[in-house]
Amino acid sequence: MKKIIFLSLLSVSLIQCSPDKRERDDLASSSQEARIIGGNLVTSGLKTAQHVVGLVVPRFGSCTGTLIDKNIVLTAAHCIPPNPRSMYVVFSTSLKSANSSNAVPVVGAVVSPLWGKSNADKNTGDIAVIKFQGQAPSGYTPVNVLKNAYYLAPSAFTLLAGFGLDDGTTQTGSGVLRETFTVLSNPRYSQTEAVLDQTIGRGTCSGDSGGPAFLLLNGAYYIWGITSRGDAQCKKTGIYTVVVPYQQFIDNAIRQLQVSF
User: Fold this and answer.
1) Which one of 52, 74, 114, 205 has the lowest number of neighbouring Cβ atoms within 10 Å?
2) Which domains does the chain have, with CATH numbers?
3) Top-confidence residue, 10 or 208
C-alpha cells in the first residue's frame, strides 16, 4: 500500500492540554496561555496516547476516536462517511506522519439509529462504533467504558483529547494529539448529552469530533463522553454524547461488527 498523504486533507481534529496539579487546582482562573488553544502535546509515552487514535478520510477530513477493544473504536456518528471503508485509523500522535505502517483501513461501522432521524438540537444520537483491519499495535490498549452515570457530577474533572484545531478563530493547528483537563458544567444537558463550559479557555474544537472525554477512577481512564459539537469559534460550550445511555447500542454494535467483518 502506497504511503498515505494526509496533511493537506485535514479539516477536523482534536485539541487539549495536560496540566500539572497546580493548573488543575486553578482551572477557574486559567490564563490565556494555559488554555487548550496552544495546550500541551500528547507524546507516545503518555497514557492518553495508548487509547486515542486519529480517523482520516482522504480528500474529506479527519476526526478522533477511542480504542475500546482490540479492533474497535468509538467515535461520533457525524464522523462516518457514506462509505466507512474509505476511512483509516491512524495509530500515531501526529496525523502528519500517517503512512502505510501506522494507518489501517476500516472494515465496517455501525451508527446509532437515532442519528439523523430528527431535527432536534438535543439527544442527536451522535455516536458510532468502528471496526478496523487487524488489531491495535503494541503500545495501544483499550480503555474502559463508563457504565454508571453516578460519577458524572457538576464540577467533576474530565480529560479531553483530540487532533483538532488549536485556535478556533484562525482555524489552525490541527493534526497533532493534544489533551487538557477541564470540568463538567452540566452533566444533565439532556438525557444523553452533557455540556462543558469553554469560556475558561479549555475545551474541544473542529476536528476533535468523536474524541473522548475521560474520567480518572482508581488510577484508570474511563471514557464517559464523545465530542459532538460546539460553537463556531470554540469559545463558549462543547456538547458531548454520554456513553452510559448507549451501552446496549455499543455492545450490540461490537457483536455485529465482529460477526459480519
Assistant:
1) 114
2) 21-44+144-244 (2.40.10.10), 48-142+246-260 (2.40.10.10)
3) 208
Q: How far is CA 1 from CA 6, 43, 251, in A?
A: 14, 27, 32
Statement: residue 16 has pLDDT above 70:
no
C-beta atoms surrounding 240 within 10 Å:
28
Contact 75, 52 (CB under 8 A): no
Cβ proximity of 206 and 179 under 8 Å: no
How many angstroms separate the CA atoms of 39 and 15, rounded?
A: 7
For 166-219, the pLDDT digits (tens) are: 554 444 456 789 898 888 899 999 999 999 877 776 666 666 889 999 999 999
Rounded-to-integer distance, Cα 35 and Cα 46, Å: 19
pLDDT at site 67: 98
Burial class (CB in 10 A: 0-12, 13-18, 19+), 223: buried
CA max distance for the chain = 50
CA–CA distance, 194 with 186 (Å, rounded to integer): 6
Of the CA atoms within 13 Å of residue 63, those in its CB half-sphere come to 27
Beta bridge partners of residue 181, listed in sequence order: 159
**Residue 161: strand pairing partners:** 179
